[in-house]
Amino acid sequence: MNEKRFNLAHRLIHWAIAATVLFLLLTVFLRLGWMNKDNMGSIIKESLAKSGTIISNEDAAAIGKSVRKPMWNYHVLAGYVLIGLYVIRMIITSVQGIAYQSPFLKGISIKDRFKSWLYIIFYILMAVSLVTGFMIVNGPKDLKEPMEFIHVKSLYYMITFIILHIGGVLLADFGKEKGIVSRMISGDKQ
Ligand code: HEM
Ligand code: HEM
Questions:
Q1: Which H or E run includes 50?
Q2: pTM score, two decimals?
Q3: Is 179 left (phi over 0), alpha (psi -120 to 50) or beta?
Q4: Is the distance from CB of 103 to CB of 116 less than 8 angstroms?
């Protein structure tokens, strides 16, 4: 297991997936926060009111949505990139095997079993996000609403995973697996 854990293919795909996921989350936070269509709408409405132009809340929100659109296109673009990276990840895994211990192995510690399940559940939930995201954009109209309903929940598991994962690898680096983070960056040194 260990020789494939930090090899080049494994590290490159790990950081490519990590960067794309963080970028996707950035677009989500911009959509929910600074670039929220209603927030932008009320700024537009107030600014226009100063020069005597009155528009409805709905029109203001529609303008806000159009301003947000070019930013949001990058969510979908990054989503397609992540679909490609996911397929590459699965090809690498089918050639090399998993880079962590199988959770079904007898005699592994509870911590390792938890870690392995965390990675496996993460990949299953990520597949759900990718399929539902793809279906919102490309699927039939009558499936759009149920797909959206599931897709928007992606935020919960993603944030939970990132907190557990980064917390876990930092704790490992401070504890028994010193240098694990730098090995994930530059590989195993001879
Ligand atoms: C959103 C960001 C991230 C995602 C989605 C992510 C995902 C993953 C996944 C799924 C694995 C399991 C092995 C694999 O399939 O590649 C893994 C392993 C690992 N990640 Fe991340 N990761 C992220 C960010 C980070 C960061 C910021 C660090 C460093 C602080 C890091 C360090 C590691 C290390 C050291 C391993 C190997 C752990 C082990 O095998 O015991 N990751 N990551
Ligand atoms: C792991 C990958 C992904 C994550 C974590 C994610 C996350 C999210 C979240 C949290 C939202 C809701 C934003 C809100 O509440 O306003 C959202 C919306 C959306 N996502 Fe994703 N997404 C991912 C992948 C994708 C992919 C692959 C596509 C398409 C190719 C996509 C297309 C969309 C679209 C079109 C919406 C808007 C839905 C609406 O109008 O309500 N996403 N995404």
A1: helix 37-50
A2: 0.93
A3: left
A4: yes
CB 44 within 8 A of CB 65: no
Residues 9, 92: contact at Cβ < 8 Å?
yes
- C-alpha to C-alpha distance for 17 and 90, rounded to whole angstroms: 12
Digit-coded pLDDT (tens) for 143-178: 999 999 999 999 999 999 999 999 999 999 999 899
Please give the distance, rounded to the nearest whole angstrom, from the Cα atom of residue 33 to the centre of ligand 1.
Answer: 27
Our answer on whether the CB atom of 26 is closer than 6 Å to any ligand 2 atom is no
Is the C-beta atom of 154 inside 6 A of ligand 2?
Answer: yes
Which residues does a 6 A CB cutoff place in the pocket of ligand 1?
5, 14, 17-18, 21-22, 99-100, 119, 122, 162, 165-166, 169, 180-181, 184
The residues, ordered by sequence, that sit 6+ positions from 24 with a Cβ below 8 Å of its Cβ are: 75, 78, 79, 82
Long-range contacts of 118-124 (CB under 8 A, 24+ apart): 118/161, 118/164, 118/165, 118/168, 121/157, 122/157, 122/161, 123/89
CA 63 to chain centre: 28
